[in-house]
Specification:
The chain has helices at 4-13, 58-75, 94-110, 160-168, 176-187, 193-198, 213-224, 247-256, 272-282; strands at 20-22, 30-31, 37-47, 79-89, 114-122, 126-136, 151-155, 205-208, 227-231, 263-267, 286-293, 297-301. By secondary structure, it is an alpha+beta fold. The strands form 3 sheets. Strands 8-10-7-11-9-12 form a 6-stranded mixed sheet. It has a 4-stranded mixed sheet with strand order 3-6-4-5. A two-stranded antiparallel ribbon has the order 1-2. The structure holds adenosine-5'-diphosphate (ADP) and magnesium ion. Adenosine-5'-diphosphate binds at residues 9, 13, 24-27, 85, 87, 115, 117-120. The site of adenosine-5'-diphosphate (ADP) has 13 residues, from helix 1, strand 4 and strand 5.
């Protein structure tokens, strides 16, 4: 007789594993990595009450738990191939599990990623996914590759997720329509995998904006032993927050808001045409927002070159 745990794994998480010799069901999965590739490995956890509300739509939770991990693979220029899923559940709720699994597996299928294993335990709801991705040897987009005078680029537009989350906590700044659209980008983020792949050999460093542009760019600065200057007027604020009257609220949301999952990357000024061509080919907005300098940390400047103070630097789970 199958136990409820195995029944659950079989029903919701056992799927044909396209890129694997052996998927779910044995003590380990067996994978066949592509010769000449490095494995890029990353894990992210989403915890109830910390990363999502208890009444979250389970389909969007399944999507998001995977999307935030795929976003890390994108930031390395890596191709995600396999995932494992560690799921902690307070109880077995079939409707919830079916929706969660559908959200996760739909995104996995879209990107040709196979669920090859995991662990299922009982406790307060939390979702941990590990992604194994491949990148041709030596071509990963690392945080430590930025060079002095590199241009700093960002994909997409920024700021809507922060204002949407604030609105959920009761601080309403967006119109009702803008809130609905912004909330959608928070719940259904799209990892920029095609962009990451296209930037191999073009960008010199990259990071995904999960904790806010300024805070994440600071990681590139630190690892590359350089400073960064961002021109505030160049930062592409989301049109959804364009109606927010207070300019400093808009700027702050775009510069420090997390949950974006866009890529910030640096590239030599000689690569401007290549970057523009990638944006045109993928239909993505890629904006040059500043450059890498000697020094340390991120400085945001106005049109006159004067530095603009920021309200916060980005999200930190253990900040006081
Ligand atoms: P073990 O006791 O060897 O750790 P488990 O009973 O935890 O094995 O898991 C049995 C099989 O089911 C393994 O192949 C494991 O990878 C897989 N598995 C368990 N939980 C999940 C899950 N949530 N998603 C995908 N695969 C899972
Ligand atoms: Mg186990």
């Amino acid at each position: 007789m199958a136990s409820p745990e195995f029944d659950l794994i079989t029903r919701y998480f056992t799927r044909p594993a396209a890129n694997a010799v052996l998927g779910v069901g044995d003590d380990c999965a067996l994978l066949l990595p592509t010769p000449g590739c490095e494995l890029a490995v990353t894990t992210d956890t989403l915890v109830e009450g910390r990363h999502f509300f208890p009444d979250v739509d389970p389909r969007s939770l399944g999507h998001k738990a995977l999307a935030v991990n795929l976003s890390d693979a994108a930031a390395m220029g890596a191709d995600p191939k396999w995932i494992t899923l560690a799921l902690t559940l307070p109880a077995i709720d079939h409707a919830w599990l079916a929706a969660f699994s559908a959200g996760l597996c739909t995104l996995a299928d879209q990107h040709g990623v196979s669920l090859v294993g995991g662990d299922t335990t009982r406790g307060p709801l939390s979702v941990t996914i590990t992604v194994l991705a491949e990148v041709p040897r030596g071509q990963a987009l690392r945080r430590d590759g930025a060079k002095i005078d590199d241009d700093i680029w960002v994909s997409g537009t920024l700021g809507a997720p922060l204002l949407a989350v604030e609105q959920r906590y009761g601080k309403a700044t967006l119109t009702r329509d803008a809130f609905a659209k912004a909330a959608h980008t928070v719940d259904w983020p799209e990892p920029q995998l095609a962009l990451g792949r296209a930037l191999r050999g073009v960008a010199r460093s990259a990071i995904d904006i999960s904790d806010g542009l300024v805070g994440d760019l600071a990681h590139i600065c630190e690892r590359s032993s350089l400073g960064a200057v961002i021109e505030a007027a160049r930062v592409p604020a989301s049109p959804l927050i364009g109606r927010v009257a207070d300019e400093s609220v808009r700027l702050n949301a775009a510069l420090t808001g997390g949950d974006e999952y866009q890529l910030c990357f640096t590239a030599a000024p000689s690569a401007r045409h290549d970057v523009a061509a990638i944006g045109a080919r993928l239909g993505l907005l890629l904006t040059r927002i500043g450059s890498m300098r000697s020094g340390q940390g991120v400085t945001v400047v106005d049109a006159y070159g004067a530095s603009i103070p920021l309200v916060s630097q980005g999200f930190d789970h253990f900040a006081a």
